[in-house]
Every structure is written in C-alpha cells, then in structure tokens.
Amino acid sequence: MPRQNESPRVSCSTINNYKILFPRQHKIFSVEDSKLPNSPGKDFIWNYIYPLLKVVCHISFHTCLPFHSLLFCCYIISVRHKMTILIEQPDLALQSETKNVHAGETNELVFDGGFPLPKQESEDGFKAPEINSFGHTFRNYDAESERQKGVEEFYRQQHINQTYDFVKRMRKEYGKLDKAEMSIWECCELLNEVVDESDPDLDEPQIQHLLQSAEAIRKDYPDEDWLHLTALIHDLGKILLLPRFGELPQWAVVGDTFPLGCAFDESNVHHKYFKENPDNNCPAYNTKNGIYTEGYGLDNVVMSWGHDDYMYMVAKENGTTLPSAGLFIIRYHSFYPLHKEGAYTHLMNEEDVENLKWLKIFNKYDLYSKSKVLIDVEKVKPYYLSLTQKYFPAKLRW
Questions:
Q1: 312 Cβ neighbours under 8 A, 6+ residues apart
Q2: Was 235 annotated as part of a binding site?
Q3: Poorest-confidence range of 6-20, 210-224, 261-275?
Q4: 333 belongs to an annotated ligand binding site
Q5: Is 196 annotated as a binding-site member?
Q6: How far apart are CA 359 and CA 349, in angstroms?
Q7: 197 marked as part of a ligand binding site
C-alpha cells in the first residue's frame, strides 16, 4: 500500500468480498466484517444497500466524522459476488481527534515475548522462488543434478573430519588474524574466484550471492542498514579457500554447521556419515548435552569450523559496531539444524532466542535470493562502502 505522503494514481484493495478501488485523492478504508450474502439472488436491498451502509457507518466511526457530513460517491458493480466501491476521501485535516493506531497498521512486527522486529516495507517485496538455478527445490540434497554427487561427497568428508579437536586447532591458528590486512570491500572482491561446492542451488561467484542477498533485504527492510551490511559480509569467511589464507579444503570452509562436543542430531544433512567421525566413539560427546549444560549459550558452544566462525572472529576482534543480532547471523547462518529444523535449542540462552528471530528473517534472503540475474556491482558499491565505514574500521586484520 502506498505511503500517505505519496499520490498513487490508483489504489486497490479486496476486503472480505469487497474490492475497493480508489483513484487519485482517494483513500482505502478497512471495512471488517462487511460481507455480501453468498446468494446473488437476494433482493437488491440485502445484496447492495445493506453492506454499503455498513461501509458508510464504519468510515463515520473510524474517522470521527458525523454520518451526515460524509461526502462520497458510490458506484456499485456486482462481479462474481464482489463489489467495487469508489469513496471520496474525507478531509481528515479538519478533525481534532486523534485516530487510534493498531499494531497491524505500524511498520513493526511483534513476536512472542514482546520482541519487536520491523515488518517488511511492502507486500510487493522479495518473493521466494520455488526452484533454484538448476530447476530443483532449494536445499534438495536428493535431487539428481550435475552437482548432486559432489555435494554428497562433500558432506561425507565434512562429517568424518570435523571433530572437536580439529576445531580447537583451527580457532587457535586463525584466531591470530595474521594472514592479511585489508578492507571489507577488498575482501568482497577476493570472492570472485570462489564457488561453494556444498551449495546445490548456486554456481555463480560468491560476490554475486552476497549482493543478491543484501539487495533483496535492502528492498524489504530499507531502514535496517546493519542487516544490509550483514548480508554483504556474511560469507566473506570463504576466503579460507584461497591460497593466501591456507587454501583449506571445502569441507573445512563451507556447508551446514553443527555443534561439536555433543551428540550429532539426526536433522543434520547426510547424518549417516557421522558414524565414521572419531568423536562418535567418545562417550562424553554422545549425549544430548554432551560437555555442555542446558541453556549454556551458543556463544560458548564449539561449532564445526568454517567460514561462519572465521568471519565471526574477524568481525568481533576488529571491533565491529554491528548489533549482537548481526554477529549471531554471521556465526550461525549455516546452522540449518537449528534455524530450519529446530534442533539444539536446548543449548540456547535468552539472548540466542531473541537473535534467532532475526536469523530466520535473514535466512529467507540468504537461501532464496540466489539467482542467475546478476547485480551491477559498480552501481551498488558506493552504498555498501558507506556502510562498511559506519560499522567497521578502514582496514581489518584477517
């Protein structure tokens, strides 16, 4: 719906069985509980005049205008049990009373527990497609495609080699942040040569995925600039695949992530391959909580090593001013067993619960914005450079 300070040529809305059409200088009024009789054979008064009077009464009540002062022109057309009603917009500026605003009319979405999140700007925003670039449903690890066999082999290697001790070694090594010093945008440009072999939905350079995600979110949540930047940088850790950063194998950089130090939940993709993981033979790691306790907090849990954890370390240690929800998205956006399947929630604390709501919003754009339609990098570059300057130092240690 257009904002009030705009002058749309035509506004159109369907409320129950009414289709209300307003030309320029007219406004849509929500008429609840107004409904035409199911049978078109009813007499004229019941079919047309009665519901019309309900519209007029509703407008009079909610605009605080006297019934007799409403100037309107109604043209009623019956089309398959629907009515098109043209109503002249009253001059609300003359009214002294303030109209009550309901939660659903604001740009705020309130989740359980009272945690507020912004509602997307328009219902005409980003729409999730049903199929990926290869003609299959997203995250379909069983569909036959040119990349499917490679994807399953990737998860076989990942599930065998990602152990608690391996992650501890990686965090110690890469926690030094001594591999390079560069800006966020310089790192983005390094991703032009990176293709994620674990992803069954995309075979374009990673810089395109970053911009596709960021631009889709920017369209629907224009005021949340930290979320735009989070989308841009969330996969920058994939530079670990490049020689300058150790040229780690794909299984140590990309793919779904999962906790170590506790039992492998069956919601993990290709769970069967965990049988060959050495941690599977360690009794301390084979219970639901493992070495942790319920409500321990995900920040204290050892996650499988990869680009998520690495970029989280880079952002945090370089003093980013992104909110905690941004850092949570960066570290757990590949943690699909949690935010898609609902597993491992017993390890979360209260802050994790709140941040997870943002992650679920982000995931729609991370997963479904992958497209063959490429973003004009030079066109959007100035905007994202301004965000990196706002939330990060000019140069970061990597």
A1: 237, 327, 330, 331
A2: yes
A3: 6-20
A4: yes
A5: yes
A6: 15
A7: yes
